[in-house]
Amino acid sequence: MKKVGNHNSIAKKLFIGLALSLIFSLNSFAQDAAPVADDAAAPAATSGGDAVKGKELFNANCAACHKMDAKATGPALRGVAGKYDTPWLYKWIRNSSELIKSGDAQAVKVYNENNKAVMSAFPQLSDSDIDNILAYTSEPKVEAPAAAAGTVAVPGTSVSDSGISNNIILGALALVMVVLVVMLFLVNKVLSKVAKVNGIEVEPKTATTPIWKAFVRNQFLVLVTAIFLLLASAYFVYGFLMQIGVDQDYAPIQPIHYSHRIHAGDNEINCKYCHSAARVSKNAGIPSLNVCMNCHKNIGEVAESTATPEYSKAFYDEQIQKLYTAVGWDPASQSYTGKTQPVKWVRIHNLPDFVYFNHSQHVTVAGIECQTCHGPVQEYEIQKQFAPLTMGWCIDCHRKTDVKMEGNEYYTKIHAELSKKYGVEKLTAAQMGGLECGKCHY
Ligand code: HEC
Ligand code: HEC
Ligand code: HEC
Ligand code: HEC
Ligand code: HEC
Ligand code: HEC
């Protein structure tokens, strides 16, 4: 008997050991796959300035025209201290136009290479200020380690930047499980053979009443369970039927991850700046990409502080690049290439064809806020359908909402007549005819 107990515990130990080694191997696997931050781009010659102060000065004076690693209005400035000698840079930065006019060969060359764009003069900067800026521009480039994580963070997409898709990992796990089961089976077989050879009887299991038999014998329990199951399924079937055609909370992945939180929330851009048609026509419309470029000619990347734990700066910057690809904008030369590809936004709100809904009627005439029907859009990272858009939803609001009569001549006469008819001061949209089938149905 004692040895039999041993046999079980050996199998158990073996299993735990295997499981542990599996966990450890997975852990080291994950570490291998983690993106490695590399400090690329070796620094050019460093001048003895303070890079932190330099960064402030750079952001305040130069960032409007220069980026560290990409061409903007002026050339990229990383490593510029290694390109020219410092006295020349002092002169250039304080007043480049003067230097060009004086006929300095190097200055004229830089000027011509950059399409003769004019750089502002900075006579107020001292030598040490400029040293600080140059120290900042001489810092090595740090790759954001979040670059890979950012793309993984898109909910719903299964591509992972580490190159190892989740499916392969799952497959490997399944394989390991199968191997484990087979091994356990074999070990069990060998151990029972050993036991047999040693003349030890493995005790057969004593038969007890299976739980389902006990259950079937208890008629009351069966009845209660049957009723419960029937009610539950009726509940779910009803819920499912009521869901047909109702797409509340529908939030598809868009071709460009466009965040209303960042635009309408953080940057307080008015809804009607982009959805300008909502005021005057039936449809609110999605803005054309030219509207985006009013701002994005100059906004090629987001600020460090815009990144969230879920979406990295690298992820957002990539989205703006998608916008550039779509409109055919080359940020390096600051010009359109002429190669465009339309962005296919996925339509979220969609009433059936037999329903008539008009934005201007609700937004301009009734003065209803967009948020009443679309929810707190300025907080949405991903746009979604807030309202159910059912007939009951429309009717409910028409019953409850008073029509805005003030300052609307069209209503003055109707109001006088109808308020007499209903004997009330205020009229709801319903009393104005907002429940008539023909108003909403073609
Ligand atoms: C109004 C836009 C503008 C601002 C602001 C500006 N620059 Fe420039 N910068 C340019 C342009 C344009 C060029 C290219 C030369 C030309 O066309 O005059 C240039 C060229 C340079 C060059 C030569 C780069 C090379 O690789 O040849 C340096 C160095 C430079 N700028 C430093 C600065 C510093 C430092 C600041 C901030 C204190 C600054 N710039 C602010 C527009 C600007
Ligand atoms: C900078 C431009 C811009 C601003 C400002 C803006 N939107 Fe949008 N809106 C878009 C774009 C682009 C889309 C399509 C992509 C998407 O659905 O996220 C969109 C989609 C929508 C949709 C879903 C459309 C559909 O397919 O059914 C609604 C609703 C909406 N916006 C409401 C608002 C409201 C309300 C505000 C103000 C709080 C607002 N938007 C501000 C650009 C903008
Ligand atoms: C009125 C100016 C303005 C307009 C118009 C505008 N944007 Fe932006 N956009 C911004 C600002 C500001 C930021 C954030 C910059 C930051 O955080 O540093 C931004 C950030 C972004 C980002 C990165 C964050 C995100 O939302 O994923 C994308 C992508 C983007 N815009 C796309 C668009 C598209 C597409 C349109 C046109 C439908 C558009 N923008 C119109 C000002 C604008
Ligand atoms: C009374 C409710 C209501 C108000 C207020 C409202 N919307 Fe809508 N919105 C809807 C409905 C319903 C749809 C679906 C229309 C359809 O499918 O024909 C819709 C659709 C949209 C769409 C999808 C594209 C389109 O043109 O159909 C956008 C974008 C949109 N609304 C933006 C806005 C903005 C911006 C405002 C504020 C200026 C606003 N809405 C105010 C109910 C409303
Ligand atoms: C948030 C409240 C609200 C919601 C939701 C709403 N409406 Fe309205 N609707 C109004 C108000 C208020 C008026 C009266 C506007 C006016 O002054 O003419 C109105 C007027 C109308 C009218 C014109 C009625 C007439 O007498 O000429 C139509 C048609 C209409 N709505 C259709 C719809 C449809 C379709 C939906 C649902 C998809 C809907 N509305 C959802 C508030 C709402
Ligand atoms: C305020 C606007 C409005 C009025 C008034 C209105 N309906 Fe509707 N009706 C809707 C909307 C919106 C839908 C689409 C609902 C959906 O897609 O779930 C709809 C859907 C329907 C449907 C299709 C069934 C369904 O639920 O999808 C029928 C039938 C219908 N309406 C009949 C009527 C009749 C009859 C009247 C007059 C008594 C009427 N409606 C008045 C807005 C209205």
Keywords:
single chain; 442 residues; mainly alpha; Cytochrome Bc1 Complex, Chain D, domain 2; 5 domains; two-stranded antiparallel ribbon; flat; disordered N terminus; binds heme C
Describe the structure.
The chain has 442 residues and is mainly α. It folds into 5 domains: 2-31 and 161-197; 51-137, Cytochrome Bc1 Complex, Chain D, domain 2, CATH 1.10.760; 211-243; 260-392, no CATH class; 393-442, no CATH class. It is built from 20 helices and 2 strands. The chain has helices at 2-33, 51-62, 86-94, 96-101, 105-113, 127-137, 146-152, 166-197, 211-217, 219-243, 260-266, 271-274, 289-296, 313-327, 359-365, 370-374, 391-400, 409-422, 430-434, 437-440; strands at residues 329-330, 335-336. The protein has a two-stranded antiparallel sheet with strand order 1-2. Helix 7 crosses helix 14 and helix 13 crosses helix 14. The chain is flat and about 105 Å long. The termini are far apart. 11% of the residues are buried. The model is unreliable at 1-8, 17-46 and 146-163 (pLDDT under 50). It binds heme C (HEC) (6 copies). One heme C is lined by residues 254, 258, 260, 263-264, 269, 271, 273-275, 286-287, 345, 347-349, 370, 374, 377-378, 383. Residues 1-30 form the signal peptide. Keywords: Electron transport, Heme, Iron, Membrane, Metal-binding, Signal, Transmembrane, Transmembrane helix, Transport. Residues 49-141 form the Cytochrome c domain. The chain crosses the membrane at residues 168-187, 220-241. GO terms for molecular function: electron transfer activity; heme binding; metal ion binding.
